[in-house]
Amino acid sequence: MVHNNSWHMAHKNVALVLGAGGAAGNAWLIGIIAGLAEAGLDMTHAADLVIGTSAGATAAAQLRSGIPPAELLASVLSPKIQPVGQNRQPPPSVPMATVFERMRAISAAATSAGDLQRAMGAFGLECDAILGPAAGDQRRAMVAARLPRHEWSDRPMIVVAVDAHTGEVAKFDRDSGVDLVDAIAAATALPGLVPTQSINGTRYINGGVRSPDNADLASGYANILVLSPLSGRSGPLPEGQFEGLRRPPEWGMDLEGQVEALRNEGSRVEVITPDADSRAAMGTNQMDLATRIPAAGAGFAQGKREATRLTFL
Known about the structure:
The protein has helices spanning 22-38, 43-46, 55-63, 69-77, 96-109, 113-131, 133-146, 180-187, 255-264, 276-282, 292-306; strands at 14-18, 49-53, 157-163, 169-172, 197-199, 202-206, 223-227, 268-272. By secondary structure, the chain is α/β, with parallel strands linked by helices.
């Protein structure tokens, strides 16, 4: 049954929220979307708005590219062989252990969501000097290579980043006057691991610093479907993993709190998190590229099953 208020906001009927989750999470998202489409629920047509965070921002651009979900899935399951040295992320200059240690310290010291976001932005800016000026160009080229098209879709899409200077949320869309590749590069810039992204003189970091899902940005939509790669796990992410930053529930940045607030506004909200098979396929290191094929396959199987309960779309 569709919520009554959907009749009063037909142009704001369905929002799709794609959460953070690294290489494994992106592949799982594509798998879920393809599985839903296979079962008759094609979100490329059903979603009036797509909101993407971190890996979900890349998935949002892929979904809005006009390429059918089955083809997006096929491209994950049959990755093209790249020439040596092409489309490979250069190893970070900052050791992973150092990055995770710093993230834990920032997270432990933060007294508010804004405090955490500003501190993570400062950390990202600090690491730019270590990563060097060439790293930004290399990374932008890598981001561009992942996108099926480099133009914003006519269908509404928001990718979420954080202003590295102020800690404030940035919601990039086709009306922002920002190149899509730059927006995705900003939305996926993990502090300490890759450079911040400069757009019109302002530097930005990953939107997952604010929230792994940013589902609250779907406020006003009658029906909201959240695909959250990092939620629903039986245990926490490995210590220091990016999206595992400490966020007390009272900050309102956790998915449960955001979903409750949306439901209190009258929205119908459904959440899909990785099931046991998908969690096993995704592993414990969501940045590991070797997880992409198994995560996509598990997501596809899960998506076909999940479609049966999404009767409101």
